[in-house]
């Protein structure tokens, strides 16, 4: 059993006391209000900005976090609609800043042909504490099912339901980090009273497809786009990435809905989860952001090409 984590008793799930101990150890390390919110607010000349919820964590850290969606102007229901989500895991930095970079650069050009909806930082407390979980020790990216416990996920689901909008595409921006093995994996095992098994972290960018919506040509288009700015993870000697068989170069697959992943939050036929490896000696923080941007643009270009083919 996991005996490497410093909280809890081996083989026993955490109680309220262990979760409280874990929460007491979490510290603010960077600022959503300085790093992220000003960029969102600065987009109001070109986009509609909607506050879809808030997280009242005042008793925990003295802060109330507003949750924002950024929408393209002149929304037209006859255009394809795309959803881009970032910061489901707040510690995955390029997910947040990749979504913001897209809004700052190419999003306006794409909005002439697409309705664009971006939720750039779903877990702002996680961003500030460089954390995978919510303050309640819940993984928001296992909480997008109807019984999900994370407030972050619940408010996204409620907002999207209120829009009554069908999505053509959803891309969810993530990272796989060394801290998944050094901190977050052992903590999860300890929390659940299970044995911890570290996984082999790939060096490079890869994608997680949805088992129910595989779309191999779509994923190839994203991989080809990202390969222009950074390296793609190679499969290991077993033909695997993160202990999963590859479906094609740089792509694995998992059942999004049964796992409660953010990528299951819509019924978009085109769906993908990006995974950037920021700890690689072969990349930089800026390249990680560029990889997320390239993934978004590769996905949207594929959608537009398919739409043009359908029309012709």
From TrEMBL:
Signal peptide start-end: none
Record keywords, A-Z: Hydrolase, Metal-binding, Zinc
Coiled-coil annotated residue ranges, if any: none
InterPro entries reported in the protein's UniProt record: AstE_AspA_cat, Peptidase_M14
GO molecular-function term, one example from the UniProt record: hydrolase activity, acting on ester bonds
Source taxon at top rank: Bacteria
Boundaries of every Peptidase M14 domain copy: 29-307
Name of the protein this chain belongs to: Peptidase
């Amino acid at each position: 059993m996991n005996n490497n984590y410093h909280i809890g008793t081996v083989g026993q799930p955490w109680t309220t006391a262990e979760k409280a101990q874990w929460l007491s150890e979490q510290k603010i390390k960077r600022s959503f209000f300085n790093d992220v919110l000003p960029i969102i607010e600065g987009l109001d000349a070109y986009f509609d900005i909607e506050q879809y919820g808030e997280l009242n964590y005042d008793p925990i850290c003295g802060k109330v976090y507003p949750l924002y969606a950024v929408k393209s102007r002149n929304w037209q229901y006859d255009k394809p609609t795309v959803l881009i989500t970032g910061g489901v895991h707040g510690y995955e930095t390029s997910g947040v800043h990749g979504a913001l970079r897209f809004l700052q650069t190419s999003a306006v050009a794409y909005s002439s042909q697409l309705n664009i909806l971006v939720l750039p930082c779903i877990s702002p407390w996680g961003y500030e504490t460089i954390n995978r979980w919510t303050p309640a020790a819940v993984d928001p990216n296992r909480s997008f099912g109807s019984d999900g416990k994370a407030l972050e996920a619940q408010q996204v689901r409620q907002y999207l339901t209120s829009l009554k909008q069908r999505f053509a595409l959803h891309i969810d921006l993530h990272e796989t980090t060394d801290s998944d093995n050094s901190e977050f994996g052992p903590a999860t095992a300890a929390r659940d009273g299970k044995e911890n098994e570290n996984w082999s972290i790939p060096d490079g960018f890869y994608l997680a497809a949805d088992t129910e919506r595989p779309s191999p040509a779509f994923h190839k288009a994203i991989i080809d786009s990202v390969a222009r700015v950074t390296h793609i993870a190679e499969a290991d000697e077993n033909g695997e990435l993160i202990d999963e068989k590859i479906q094609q170069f740089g792509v694995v697959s998992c059942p999004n809905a049964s796992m409660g992943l953010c990528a299951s939050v819509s019924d978009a036929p085109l769906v993908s989860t990006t995974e950037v490896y920021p700890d690689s000696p072969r990349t930089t923080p800026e390249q990680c952001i560029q990889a997320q941007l390239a993934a978004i643009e590769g996905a949207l270009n594929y959608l537009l090409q398919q739409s043009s083919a359908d029309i012709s």
